[in-house]
Design a protein that fits this description.
Shape: globular
Helix content: 10-25%
CATH superfamily: Lipopolysaccharide (LPS) transport protein A like domain
Strand content: over 45%
Radius of gyration: 19 Å
CATH topology: lipopolysaccharide transport protein A fold
Number of domains: 1
Distance between the termini: 34 Å
Number of helices: 2
Number of strands: 10
Order of helices and strands: HHEEEEEEEEEE
Length: 191
């Protein structure tokens, strides 16, 4: 039986701390780049516009949705989300009294489907579906072989849930895929 020292900077506690830092960084990059979180981008800049391109757009004012279809690309700051389809759900000013006076609606949810890829300077994520919910303050990546990679560190499973406010992460496996986590030790500085 192998024992580990209980010092905060060694043994399993150091591994847990490293795991928490990696998971927090992954959450901050995805959330910050796409939604403008202060955690990842410093101050939330209103000038960071969201650019969406696709082969087709269907807007439904009654349903308060916009559906982008075919070769969808969403860009904001240094984050790019690519998917086959993106549905954006809006909340009207009457539903949310806190909406700024000059804005008539805001995003309450979006669903990206069909070979979703999220790229930034720091992370790469792959999933069949990504769901952002403003109400639940989560981003859920799901589908077989869902993976988030930052450098040599990665998480994989059938569902990865990113909790925006706490930067916590929950990874679930499935019948044919177990949860996988790879954490690389920091490089040793040259003498």
């Amino acid at each position: 039986m192998k024992t580990f020292p209980s010092e905060p900077n060694s043994g399993p506690l150091k591994g847990r701390y490293r795991c928490a830092m990696v998971l927090g960084a992954i959450t901050a990059v995805i959330v910050g780049g796409v939604l403008g979180s202060q955690t990842a981008l410093g101050k939330n800049k209103k000038a960071d516009k969201i650019f969406i391109s696709a082969d087709k757009l269907i807007a439904d004012n009654n349903a308060q949705t916009a559906e982008f279809i075919g070769n969808v690309s969403l860009k904001r700051s240094n984050v790019v989300i690519m998917a086959g389809r993106l549905i954006v759900y809006f909340e009207s000013k009457t539903e949310n009294k806190k909406v700024e006076a000059d804005r008539k609606e805001m995003i309450k949810k979006f669903i990206a489907r069909d070979n979703v890829r999220i790229n930034s300077d720091q992370i790469v994520a792959r999933a069949q579906q990504a769901v952002y919910s403003r109400k639940d303050r989560t981003i859920i990546l799901s589908g077989p072989n869902t993976r988030v990679t930052k450098g040599n560190n990665s998480l994989a499973g059938t569902q990865i849930t990113l909790y925006i406010d706490t930067e916590d992460v929950q990874v679930a496996g499935g019948e044919k895929q177990r949860v996988e986590a790879v954490f690389s030790p920091p490089s040793e500085a040259a003498p």
